[in-house]
Every structure is written in structure tokens, then in C-alpha cells.
Amino acid sequence: MDYHSPASFAEASALAANATGITRFLAGGTDVLVQLRSELVTPDTLIDIKKIDGVSDITRNVDGSWTLGVAATGAEMSEHPELSGDWPGVVEAMDLIGSTQVQGRATLTGNLCNGSPAADSVPAMVAAGVTVTITGPDGNRTIAAEGIPASPGKTTLTKGEVVTAVNIPARGENGGDAYLRFIPRTEMDIAVVGVGVSLRLDGDTITEARVSLGAVAPTVLLVDDCAKAIIGSTLDDVALDALAAAASAACNPIDDKRGTIEFRTEVAGVLAKRAAKIAYARAKGEQA
Amino acid sequence: MALDDRKSEFTFVGTRPDRPDGLDKVTGRAKFGADVSAPGMLHGAILRSPHAHARIVKIDASKAEAHKDVKAVVTRADFSDKVPFQPGLEGEFWNVLENVMAGEKALYDGHAVAAIAATSALAARDALKLIEVEYEVLPHVTDVDKAMASDAPVIREGAADYSVPEGMHPNVVRYHESGHGNVDAGFAEADLVIEDSFVTEATHQGYIEPHACLGMLGNDGKGELWCTTQGHWIAQKTCAALLGIETSQLRVTASEIGGGFGGKTTVFIEPVALALSRKANRPVKLVMSRSEVFRATGPTSSASMDIKIGMKKDGTISAAQGVFRLQGGAFPGAPGDMTAMCAFAPYNLTNVKQIGYDVMANRPKQAAYRAPGAPMGAFAVESVIDELCKKLGLDPVDVRLKNAAHEGTQASYGPTYERIGLVETLEAAKAHPHYSAPLKPGQGRGISCGFWFNHGGETSVSLALSEDGSAQLMVGTPDIGGSRASMALMAAEVLGIPYENIRVTIADTASLGYNDVSHGSRVTYASGLATIKAARHAVERLCGRAAAKWGIPVDAVKWEDGCAVPSGPNAGDFDPMPLADITADMGATGGPISGHFEATPEGAGVSFGTHIVDAEVDPETGKTSVTRYTVIQDAGKAIHPTYVEGQYQGGAAQGIGWALNEEYVYGEDGRLQNSIFLDYRIPVASDLPMIDTVIVEVPNPGHPFGVRGVGETGIVPPLAAIANAVSHAAGVRMRQLPMSPPRILAALKDNG
Ligand SMILES: Cc1cc2nc3c(=O)[nH]c(=O)nc-3n(C[C@H](O)[C@H](O)[C@H](O)COP(=O)(O)OP(=O)(O)OC[C@H]3O[C@@H](n4cnc5c(N)ncnc54)[C@H](O)[C@@H]3O)c2cc1C
User: Fold this and answer.
1) Closest C-alpha to ligand 1, atom 33
2) ipTM confidence
């Protein structure tokens, strides 16, 4: 196994482009090292991106949007009051990952690029409209977070491509987001269902919404029908029921050791309602 | 010398000093199974079957053997049923050997088929991939009911013993039937009869420390073994048998142990390390991964049970009957008999009948897990009693009190109880504020009783006094629950010297006679009894030295508060002679002073408990949280109350896991799907409420201080108590464990 710690993304990309066999980028390593030790994936090339300048920065841009370095950890996000104030749903989703120890290492980018359908921060990022910037042999590009996962464990990134930044839009006025997941225990578990909701209000009425589901399909889902169900409403019971129905209808889950098809389908609706209520309350400026 | 056998006033017993092993454990100084090394040591790794059931056609290890870092490869041919000087093994030894290293067939996913010793752990792991095994995959079965069906694949022809009735499938290997009275007549007298069926999945003990050992065995047949175990004499005896060496030539030392709960009462990797060592002529260390622990050590049995109970309007149980089918992996040994015998044991029944089956399936060999077999049976029986109470509008504690077994009751499994404390636990439950606390909407309350036999077992203890008046106590039962503290307290009580002046050591197999395993809740009872008697033996000798100094007969001397004193005014007028004054010159007054005791004590004294649980169920997701928990159990006499409470709380915590989320999940292919803690869901700290405890003390007549073992009974009531609480909270009877959210949600849907 070859280990590299390049000083720039261009170098990281070139190393990956020229590597043979299995290549992994090493952000927090909380997926990579676990997979290595359990002999699931033994990389031939390991490219540590943590030595690149600025990779741990969390920056609020002049337009109110956010740029997060690809090595910024869950703990650094949770301890950032302005980021938590703007995007509590994204921060709480990231904060659900693992334990205190894992929080000190794990990153949004690693969670997204690991390609797990159950990744917690991903539905929250998708609901928030997050994009990622990528450097590759053919130059740079920026794509929506939902464009990264291809299938369980696989991404759309091509050989030599590396994510260089995570971009979160400006929150703007009267907006709120939330993420909820279902696990059978209280912590240290993998989502059986995850739901991210982001919305904006005009008075009491929802004017914009994005609803995303995790762990109920081979990749994260951005469900337009869920958004339609609540846009124009005050999140009354009729809208909530329509939201739940749309969420359940969008599910295409599997039966496995973590949950049944019926269970995931049903609970996706339940959590969509609960997450929407929290996002709504946050948009109104209430504590939730 | 005058000594009372029984004691009820105590100086040290019943206090709560720090445990002697505490500092070592919190500073990392304690040495566990994987913490020792030896010069020239090799690292072992085990190749395991990926198939649930397969004939091993051929094993070609030549490439592995040729690897420069590999120093030995062993297969079944390297154990004693194949080596010429030991013509075959019989009975349980053969089963253990078959489990430790597969013979003609791999019998479950994870079954060991070969092992390697190499110069590093990584090299050993990588070299495993060089071993080529040709398998012929066979049909498999993992479910207990399916394993008994006529079309089930036969796991091993001829494994059944004489007890199994004609016409049963060969996978049924033992049969138990017991009871008394006439159940049909009893059911006819009942105002309400409920018949129901229940299922539980296998769970793992989940000890934090994986199995680990360091073995050294020379060509001269002399060996040393260091291992994490609940019983090093059984490890010694088994390893010697499996390797064809003399028992006494293998010295076994027990490491500190990071939990066992019954799962470390047998051997898995120890004979393999020794076989590798014998072949490589170097010490070999073997450490299991968590996944190996799940796949190839002993979980509990899974169970399928049918219960029928008749009750009169006043709550009297007129008849009770149960059929208990336990699957224990691909070997005989599932405790169907224990389940059957314990299931109705809390009750004073005129008519009772119980049947137990021991069934083989393609799963790892089950091992004990605190009160093996009893929790499942209690789950089924106590659920039906709860349902009867509900339908007849009766209070569940009152009904249990009405039917409770007491001194003189003929137990459901045969014998007549001596003094027991079930009624006292039920009365304490009724009086406890928890039982009358109001419930919030969506919450339910459940109660259950539980029983376990407890055990005596071979026990040998020595105590040696030092010149400065301190004492060294050697016991042979690995400390799995704070027992060194309890032993020191009991010795202090007899000797009359401070707790801190006694050092308790878990002696190796070369230092004491045979000691049975730390199981059966026997340690505080049996090693405690032997400690008291060994200390008394030393006291007799101390009194003898004092008598000689004073020139009076030994029976004119008694022992009081750590001093020899004249037994009465007629014995003479001498100042009390402290222990340290006698030991100071013991070399000149007759030599070292020690005490010793060994026996197989028979008076363990059965133990009962009653648990109260509140649970809340989210009706939209089926998720349960346990909001309040109270354990009430008879300890006979709590030597160190904190560690008694620890046993109670641990039983409840493990029971919560077993009831709600823990389970072995097998795929269609017969492979275990969840062999890591991520997917094998034991409770995390935030899943548990504060677990309240009440220690009831109804002294056991079989122990000098009244001790009853407390290590196992605590896991018997939780499954039922939680199931009753959840069933009330959800408004639907839960008949299958674990009560995971998908199962509860499905039950809620079915209920409309
Ligand atoms: C105990 C424990 C608990 C956990 N609990 C959860 C949980 O509750 N929810 C959850 O979703 N996950 C959980 N995880 C998984 C893991 O922690 C998360 O997925 C985490 O966000 C991964 O981030 P990382 O920085 O550690 O990724 P790494 O392990 O460093 O990388 C993960 C993947 O991303 C790729 N990658 C990393 N950086 C880049 C980049 N810049 N460009 C392109 N590809 C890149 C790597 O090649 C690799 O394939 C848990 C893990 C552990 C060990």
C-alpha cells in the first residue's frame, strides 16, 4: 500500500489519476480505516488530503453562503455557532455520526463519497441544496450533492477526481432546516430511514421546500412530490398527511437486518412529518 | 476452641470497600488475555468456513506452509483423535474438539477449518488466504422448528441420546419431561385457560474482551497456557484431552477477564494455540476479532415454546404446561431441560408438566449465558400469566403472591424447597413506590418473577499468613464480578483483620486442587464458603499457638476481633494476643500458618427475583424506551452490596438488550449477517434508564453467612417483564423476541 500526503488538490488528483488498483482518499478515515481493518477494502493507494492548505476551514462568504473545507470535521461544524444558526439541520445530521471520537475525524465529504445509502449528513445536504466542487484531470466542476452517489458504495466521481470544497447556499430570511433519522437505539447506529427537510416561509405559508430521504433507496432521494405537498400550505394536517404519503410513495427500500420494506416505507412518512415540523418552527424563529 | 458455624452479626461483611483490582483496571495495568507476550512468540490466525454446512473435501495448505513468515499450519489431523497415541475422544470432549477444529464437515458459518502461526499477526492473517479448501456445500438449517421438521437436513446422524422418543428427527438429541399432578384435571378446574406460543432469537453474551490466549507446548508434552477464561481447570482438562497430553503437565493461568457471562466456560482457541505451538516449537498467541467472537463462540440457544396455563377467578393457577424447543448449534447441549425445569419453578403448583427438547442446527455451539435457558422460559410463561391476570382483572403481583412457592413447596422440577425468598421479593415489589407510580399515556408496566438453581461445584482454597499479620488468599475461581472483594471481606470477618490486609489471588492450576468454573452463581457461595473455612482452619492453628504460649489447652482459647483470648474466666487470665503477635514468630513456634479447605459444597440455595419495568412505545415507529426499571432479588446475604447491585443492574441491562434489539440474524445462505457491534445491537448507555435495586436477604441455610449466588437470576425476569410492559404500552401481546421496532410496528398494524 502506498501512502501519499500531497500539498495541493492538483497533486492529489494527479496521484489518483496515475494510480493503479484501488485508490482511496483519506479524509477522517472513519470509513476508510474501518473498511481496511475489517478487510472489506484494502486500498493500494491512500491519498491523505488533510495536509492541503485550508482543508479544515469553515468560511462564511460575503453573500451569506458557506464554503467548508473537505477535512472540516463534525466537531468543528457543531462548535461553529453561526453555521449552526444558519443550517441547524445540516449540522445536526453531521453531529449524529458516531461518537465523540468519530466526530473529531469524520467529514461531510467522506460521508458523501463513501456512497452509503444510509449516510446521515447526505439527505440534510441535499435538502439544503449543497453543491461540491471537484478537481480532476479535465479541470474543475461543481455539482449538486445528490449528483455524487451512484449506487451503494459507488460514486459518479471519475478516476483522478477529488472533491475540493463543500458549498452551502446562503440561508436567507425565514428559512429553516432539520434532519431526523430512525435508529432502534438512541445512538451509535446506522439510519434505517433518514429525512432532511429545508423550507422557507412567507408569513405562515411555505414558499420553498426541499425534502430528501436516505436509507430507503439505493441512493439518496430528492423528492419533488414531498416538496409539492407542503409548498403553499401552513403545514396543516392535510399537508402533513400528503407529505407523509409522498415520502412513503417515493421509497424503494430493501429488506435487511436493519429494517423491513414495510417498516422503512411507513417510517419515512412519519419522520418526514416530524422533520418538516421542526424545520417549520425553525423558519419561524422558534427554538426546536 | 469454640466456633459458631452460622453468623448473623458482621463487622466487614455488608460494607462497600473499593475493589482490590480497581486501580489496576482503571490505570490499564491489569493484564487481560491479549496482554502478555513471550520471547520468540508467533501469532496465530484461524481460517473459518464461509458455509453453514459443507463437506470438507480437501485442504491444501502447501502454499501457506511455503510462505517465509509461516511457521506452522494445523488442521484437525493435529489433534488427539487423529494422532496415534490417543485413540479417539468421547462425549463432550469430542464435541468440543469438533467445534474447535472441524473434522469431516464444516457445521456452521465461522467453523474453524485450519490455523496458521506466523511471525506477525498481519502475516498470519494474509497467509490464511493461501490455504485452499475445497468444500461440497450441503443443505443447511438454522431455525429450531425447521430443524425438527421431517425434511430438515441431518446435521449428525446418531448424535441423539437414549432420552429421545422414537420417530423424532435425528437433529433432536435430548428430551426432558418432568412435573407432577394431572394437568388435564387441572385445566378442567380452571375458569380461564390460555394457550400461546412464543419465539426467542439467539443472543450473544457480548463480553467486551474477545477470547485471547498465549500457548506454549513442547515436544516433551509439557505446556503453559495463559488465557481469558471463567475456569482454567476446565481449560486445562479439555486442552490436555484434545492434545493427548497429561493434564498435570499443562499449567494454565487465568488472565484478568473482560466479561464472560457463561461464554468463557469452555475453550475455543486455546487448544489451537497449543497445537500450533507444539508444531512450531514456539509460543503462539491467538486473539479473536469481534466478528470471530460472534460467529464462532457460544451465543445462547434460540427457542420456540408453547405454553398452556389454567387459572381460577381468584387467581389460583390450576394447571400449567409447557413445551420448550431449544436450538443450540451443531452440537448437543442446548439447555431445553433447564428451560423446562425453571419455567414454572416460582410457583406452588398442584398440576404441572414440562417438556424440553435439545435440537441441533447449523449454528455455532451454544454456550451458557447467565442462567442458561431460564430467561426464554420465563418470557413465555410470565407472558401467559400476565395475559390471564389482564383477562381476569387481577393484579399481577397479587396473583404471583397467591401462587408463590415457599419453604416446603414441591418445586415444578421435583425437589422440595428449603427456606426461599420469592414471597419476600414480591412483597417488596408491592411495597415499592415504583409499583404504584402513575404511568403516562403511551406507557405500560410489566412485572415478572424469575428463578435459578445456583450451583456448588468443586472448590479448593488456601490462605497463608505472613509474619506481619497480613494474609494471602488463593482461590481458583476467576473474578468475573468483584469476587476478590467479597472473598477478602469474608476472610477479614473470620480472621478479624482489616479488608486491606488481605490480598486475594486467582491461583493457577498448579497451585490448588481442581476448581470448577466461575459459573452457576457459585463463586461467592462456594469459594466464599471455602474461604471462610480455610480462614477458620488458620484460626484454629493460631489458637493452637496461643494455647501453647499460655500453656493452656487449645479448647480453652477462642478467637475474637483478630485476637486469641481465653475462652472464659476459668481458662486463665491472659491479655488478648493479636494475630500479628502470633505470626511474628511463627517460624520458631511451629512454622508457617496456613489454612486450607476443599469440598464440593451442596447447599447453594436457589434464588428468586421480581422485576418491575415501565416502557413507552412510539405508536408511529414501534420504538420502545424503557423509562423505569426496578430489580428486586434475594441475595441471602449481600457480602459486598455494591457488587450485588451491579449483578442486578447488569442482568437488567442485558435483558433490555435481549428483549428489544439483540438477535442473531441469518441470511438465506445460513451465514450470520450481523457479526459486528454496529448491527448486533446491545444497548448503549443512553438506552438505559437508571436501574433501581432492592436487595432482599433471606439467608441460605447452606452457607455460613447465608449467601445465595446472585449472578444469574437477574437475567431471568427481564425478557418477560419488558415484554409485559411493552405489550401493555402497545396494546398488543408481543410473542416474539427481540421486540424490535419493525416487529412492534407490524404487530400494531395487524392489530388495526
Ligand atoms: C463508530 C462509527 C460510527 C459511525 N456512525 C455513522 C453514522 O451514524 N452515520 C453515518 O452516516 N456514518 C457513520 N459512520 C461512518 C463515517 O464516520 C462517516 O461516513 C464519515 O462521515 C466519513 O467521513 P471521513 O472523513 O472519516 O471519511 P473517510 O473514511 O476518510 O473517507 C470515506 C470515503 O470518502 C472518500 N473521500 C474522502 N474525501 C474525499 C475527497 N476529498 N474527494 C473524493 N473522495 C473522498 C474516500 O475515498 C472514501 O471512499 C460511522 C463510523 C464509525 C467508525
Assistant:
1) A114
2) 0.94
CA B665 to chain A, closest CA, distance in angstroms equals 7
Pick the CATH number of B382-454+605-750 from 3.30.230.70, 3.30.365.10, 3.40.50.410, 3.40.50.2000: 3.30.365.10
Q: What's the pLDDT tens digit per position in B459-497?
A: 999 999 999 999 999 999 999 999 999 999 999 999 999
B84 — pLDDT class (breaks 50, 70, 90): very low
pLDDT band at B92 (very low <50, low <70, confident <90, very high): confident
Closest atom, ligand 1, to C-alpha of A101: 1
Q: Between 3.30.420.10, 3.30.465.10, 3.90.1580.10, 3.50.50.60, what CATH number should domain A2-116+131-168 receive?
A: 3.30.465.10
Nearest to B344 by CA among B405, B406, B415, B419: B405
Which grid cell sits at B530?
Answer: 471455602
Amino acid at B148: M
Tell me the shortest Cα–Cα distance from B685 to chain A, in angstroms.
Answer: 9
In the block, residue with C-alpha cell 460514486: A155
CATH assignment, B42-139+205-296: 3.90.1170.50
Q: Determine if ligand 1 sits within 6 Å of the CB of residue A278.
A: no
- What is the distance in A from the centroid of ligand 1 to the CA of A252? 24
Which residue is listed with cell 463513501?
Answer: A114
Is B77's pLDDT higher than 50?
A: yes
Among protein residues, the one whose CA lies closest to atom 18 of ligand 1: A111
Mutate to test the interface with A, among B620, B664, B666, B726 (most CBs of A within 10 A): B620
B248 touches chain A (CB under 8 A): no
Residues 6+ positions from B644 with CB-CB distance below 8 Å: B635, B638, B693, B695, B710
Fold identical between B22-30+456-599 and B382-454+605-750? yes
List pLDDT tens digits, range B399-425: 999 999 999 999 999 999 999 999 999
Question: Mean of the pLDDT values across residues B267-292?
Answer: 97
Residue B85: what pLDDT? 35
The verdict on B669 touching A (C-beta cutoff 8 Å) is no
B22-30+456-599 placed in CATH 1.20.1260.10:
no
Res B82: pLDDT: 53
Average pLDDT value for residue range B146-153: 98
Q: How far is CA B727 from the centre of its chain?
A: 29
Cell 407432577 locates to B180
The answer to whether the Cβ–Cβ distance between B686 and A186 falls below 8 Å is yes
pTM of the model: 0.96
Chain segment A192-246, per-residue pLDDT in tens: 999 999 999 999 999 999 999 999 999 999 999 999 999 999 999 999 999 999 9
Q: What's the CA gap between B710 and B181, in Å, rounded?
A: 31
B66 touching A, CB under 8 A? no
Instruction: Note whether B621 contacts A: Cβ–Cβ < 8 A.
Output: yes
For chain B, report the end-to-end CA distance as a whole number of angstroms: 75
Q: Which of the two residues, B214 and B6, has the higher pLDDT score? A: B214
Angle between helices B718-730 and B641-660 (to 10 degrees): 50
Backbone angles phi, psi at A9, to 5 degrees: -70, -30
Please count the residues of chain A.
Answer: 288
Architecture, CATH, for domain A177-283: 2-Layer Sandwich (3.30)
